[in-house]
Amino acid sequence: MIETIDVHKSFDGKEVLKGISTVFEKGKTNLIIGQSGSGKTVLLKSLVGLLDVTSGDIKYDGRSFKGLDTAQKKLLRQDIGMLFQGSALFDSLTVEENVRFPLDMFTNWSFEQRQERANFCIERVKLENANAKFPSEISGGMQKRVAIARAIALNPKYLFCDEPNSGLDPRTSIVIDELIHEITHEFQMTTIINTHDMNSVMGIGENIIFIYEGSKLWEGTKDDIMHVQNKELEDFIFASKLFKEIRANNK
């Protein structure tokens, strides 16, 4: 579980996050949604520890991030898996080497142990025959699965996903969503996904927060969102013809 308590973040005197308090639950897919410039990316970076908050606190399973010393923060970061928007794979490394990379960097395991864990993660994302391929030799969807395998290599407690469906076709996006949802439940991780993809919201949104101009305006589930009474959120989610039709059919 990750908890934010009255989190504020300012840049050069301009407040970007305005007192956000929420709980991201363990074993659930927690989604942050909002328009471009709403502050959701700043919130995600603050949660990961890439940005220091101006005021307020962030707690990882009850541990205040601000209260940790450098060594403790380093240990905490080893419990964090990150899925980047563009996959961020190393072009010069094979699939297997990409997945093994965090194990090579952060563990003292034997080569055989690291290899075994990398192969487990590769198999878990259903890429059994891709070990020796390079990123340029596989599709965008397969690259995203490699990135997921690498993100879970260290068996993290917390998984952060920044626009995981960016650049993917709708069918592949569903595959990635379902995979993230499955591993979240399987490994009981606290998964936080930054997205504007309403298909993801309606598919795997177990806990959703809506950020508008730096404030949390709404929180609920994918079932709750269809009956929302918040104008800003309504404008955001029902902007497309598809969701207008869905809502009309649910009335």
Describe the structure.
The protein is of the alpha/beta class. It folds into 2 domains: about 170 residues, P-loop containing nucleotide triphosphate hydrolases (Rossmann fold), CATH 3.40.50.300; about 70 residues, no CATH class. About 40% of the residues lie in helices and about 25% in strands. The protein contains 9 helices and 10 strands. The strands form 2 sheets. Strands 6-7-8-3-9-10 form a 6-stranded mixed sheet. Helix 4 packs across helix 5. It is globular and about 50 Å long.
Q: What are the defining features of this structure?
A:
251 residues, 6-stranded mixed sheet, 24% strand, Rossmann fold, globular, 2 domains, 4-stranded antiparallel sheet, alpha/beta
Topology overview:
Blueprint: E1 2-11, E2 14-24, E3 29-33, H1 40-48, E4 55-60, E5 63-64, H2 70-77, E6 80-83, H3 95-106, H4 111-124, H5 140-151, E7 158-162, H6 170-187, E8 190-194, H7 198-204, E9 207-212, E10 215-220, H8 231-237, H9 241-250
Parallel strand pairs: 3-8, 3-9, 6-7, 7-8
Antiparallel strand pairs: 1-2, 1-4, 4-5, 9-10
Q: What is this structure, in a nutshell?
A:
This protein is α/β, with parallel strands linked by helices and 251 residues long. Helices cover 39% and strands 24% of the residues.
